[in-house]
């Protein structure tokens, strides 16, 4: 099992999500945020009341997946969110040691299906 985390431009979320669903990948979690770093697009960076430093709005998407689905998920994320510009985002893939469904205590990959 792996956890795929992607930081992307908010405007591209819907297309990415629709493509993931159409390819059989479900169960994503989405967070809105603001960030600064090498991925920040200097053309669209700005400050806000909460974070006065130069930064960009981002969406963090988290997807728990079985190992064999990860290459497809990464490909979909890249194909639907790349503008070939600085600030497109970044994808992280991390191992999941264990998954337990809160409702019934079931464990393993079956909890996401």
Automatic annotation (TrEMBL):
InterPro entries on file: N-reg_PII (IPR002187), N-reg_PII-like_a/b (IPR011322), N-reg_PII/ATP_PRibTrfase_C (IPR015867)
Top-level taxon of the source organism: Bacteria
Pfam families reported in the protein's UniProt record: P-II
Protein name per Swiss-Prot or TrEMBL: P-II family nitrogen regulator
């Amino acid at each position: 099992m792996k956890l795929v985390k992607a930081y992307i431009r908010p405007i591209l979320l819907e297309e990415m999500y629709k493509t993931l669903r159409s390819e059989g990948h479900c169960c994503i979690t989405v967070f809105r945020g603001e960030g600064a770093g090498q991925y920040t697009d200097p053309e669209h960076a700005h400050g806000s009341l909460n974070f006065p430093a130069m930064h960009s709005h981002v969406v963090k998407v988290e997807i728990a997946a079985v190992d064999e689905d990860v290459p497809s998920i990464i490909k979909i994320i890249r194909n639907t969110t790349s503008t070939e510009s600085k600030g497109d985002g970044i994808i992280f893939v991390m191992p999941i040691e264990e998954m337990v469904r809160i409702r019934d205590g079931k464990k393993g990959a079956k909890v996401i299906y």
